[in-house]
Amino acid sequence: MEAFALTKYVRMSPRKVRQAAELIRGKNVDEAINILTFTQKAASVPLEKTLRSAVANMVNNQEETVRIEPEELYVKEICINEGPTMRRFRAGSMGRVMPIRKRSSHIKIVVAEEKDKRKRK
């Protein structure tokens, strides 16, 4: 069983977010949250928020007969896609215009149970 969370239009470059995302790919959820909490990258804040949302979706959207603990989950998939780019312009030398691209990202995190991970191997 798995659940996901999606955060769109994060005002951060996908390249920078992917650097922080590589730290938690395939890790246990508790370990991933701990890593993101103590990582000194700005991208760790929206990643941690999205991860916590995915865990909450997993715990709250399950059947009443099955009880899943957050400690039994791992980060199955993490996908950072490019969002829309805002284009701005700034004065350059000799009267020219220099473009500025303000990039954004879409973050998707999928969490699954540990026993599903063991079945795959």
Structure characterization notes:
It is built from 4 helices and 5 strands, in the order E-H-H-H-E-E-E-E-H. The protein has 121 residues and is of the alpha+beta class. The protein has a single domain (2-120), classed as Alpha-Beta Complex (Ribosomal Protein L22, Chain A). The strands form 2 sheets. It has a 3-stranded antiparallel beta sheet. Strands 3-4 form a two-stranded antiparallel sheet. A hairpin with a 5-residue loop joins strand 3 and strand 4 (97-102). The chain is elongated, with a radius of gyration of 18 Å.
Write a short abstract of this structure.
This protein has 121 residues and is an alpha+beta fold. The chain is built from four helices and five strands, in the order E-H-H-H-E-E-E-E-H.
| Biggest sheet strand line-up | 1-5-2
End-to-end separation? 16 Å
CATH homology superfamily name: Ribosomal protein L22/L17
- Tell me the overall shape: elongated
Order of helices and strands: EHHHEEEEH
Text of the CATH class: Alpha Beta
Number of strands: 5
Kindly report the CATH topology.
Ribosomal Protein L22, Chain A
Write the layout of secondary structure elements.
Elements: E1 2-10, H1 14-21, H2 29-38, H3 44-60, E2 73-82, E3 86-91, E4 97-102, E5 105-113, H4 114-120
Antiparallel strand pairs: 1-5, 2-5, 3-4
Helix pairs in contact: 2-3
Short key terms for the protein model shown above:
single chain; 121 residues; alpha+beta; Ribosomal Protein L22, Chain A; 4 helices
